[in-house]
Amino acid sequence: MIIHTLSLRSFRNYEQLSLTFGSKVNVFIGENAQGKTNVLEAIYVLALAKSHRTAKDKELIQFQAPFAHISATASRRNGDVEVSLALSSKGKKGKVNGLEQRRLSDYVGTLNVVMFAPEDLNLVKGGPHVRRRFIDMELGQISPLYLHHLSLYHKVLKQRNVLLKELQAKKGTPAMLDVLTDQLIEHGAVISQKRVTFIVKLQGFAAPIHEAISRGRETLGLLYSPSVEVSEGTDVSKIKEDLYSAYERRKEQEIRRGTTLFGPHRDDLAFIVNDRDVQTYGSQGQQRTTALSVKLAEIDLIHTEVGEYPVLLLDDVLSELDDYRQSHLLETIQNKVQTFVTTTSTSGLHKNVLGAALVFSVEDGTVTNVSEKPR
């Protein structure tokens, strides 16, 4: 997959911006707070209809502008595609080749991207919500069905929590709780099953990468920790039965607490290195190697699932990696993944990056191609 052009209107600090990219590496150089991360964020938002930096869409829209608009042209294995996304106070609308998509879950996946930013190093040592978001964003790119069920799950979850608060205050309709619980289980069972399958596949790619980076000294395992027992191949009907039993057992407790105490929104993912939880017992080096291995594994997993490589976005992350890990990353992506890199200086970049790069200078919302020629 190759992104050829990107156009922004009223997005972050860009009132208007049009760029043409190279097919290999595109480097954005500039001081902090000049707008280079905003370019990568725009590509990410265009692909996933969500930002990796904020949950508030209004922060993406330039101050006092009625809406923001992002569009791009790209090549996929089955032909060229044009995608656009409009963001406003009324929501988001995505178009593919000029046709508005009825649901965002139908739109997401038209472009596939993998983002690696400094905060992704917290994938291992951060809280469970970081890892759930990681699963949701990556799995959502390759499974519209997962994204559909996830969206409906969160809508029902919100309604259920409101009702539990009412029941806690001796208000509301108790019979409605059973209705919402059944709906939550319907979507939650599919979410759990698909997550387990995804994590098993991801481990298959991440383990050999981790072993190579650690020079054969470490083995990596990924362990999904769901609210009810789920393993690869578990039938959805069995997951539904177990969820139903669990909710029945804890119904009164949930009413007393006024919130939904378990389900996919409470699940977690553990990283096991040499049979030890790397979050608790791993060194900083092991945690970074784990995060890098998982991110690189995403590239191969998406390639396997959709038949082509995603676009890689490296937001000021190369400077966070030592020379050995940086070299391994670059060897993995060399000549197969279109890559976008942000940095404050070229001094921290491997010569292989600059040798194939189209270089842009970013200063106060102005982006200038400073390369001698496109590559």
Give the structure's gist in a few sentences.
The chain is an alpha/beta fold and 375 residues long. Helix content is 44%, strand content 24%.
Output the keywords.
six-stranded antiparallel β-sheet, Rossmann fold, single chain, Glutathione S-transferase Yfyf (Class Pi), Chain A, domain 2
Strand elements, count:
15
CATH superfamily of the largest domain: P-loop containing nucleotide triphosphate hydrolases
* CATH classification class of the largest domain: Alpha Beta
Order of helices and strands: EEEHEEEEHEHHHHEHHEEHHEHEHEE
Report helical residue fraction: 40-55%
Shape: globular
- Output the strand order for the largest sheet: 2-1-4-5-6-7
N-to-C terminal Cα separation, in Å? 16 Å
Number of domains: 2
Report the total helices: 12
CATH topology of the largest domain: Rossmann fold
Averaged pLDDT: 91
Q: Please name the CATH architecture of the largest domain.
A: 3-Layer(aba) Sandwich
The biggest sheet, with number of strands, parallel, antiparallel or mixed sense and barrel status, is:
6 strands, antiparallel
Which quaternary structure do these chains form?
Answer: single chain
Q: Spans with pLDDT under 50 lasting ≥5 residues?
A: none
Structural class: alpha/beta
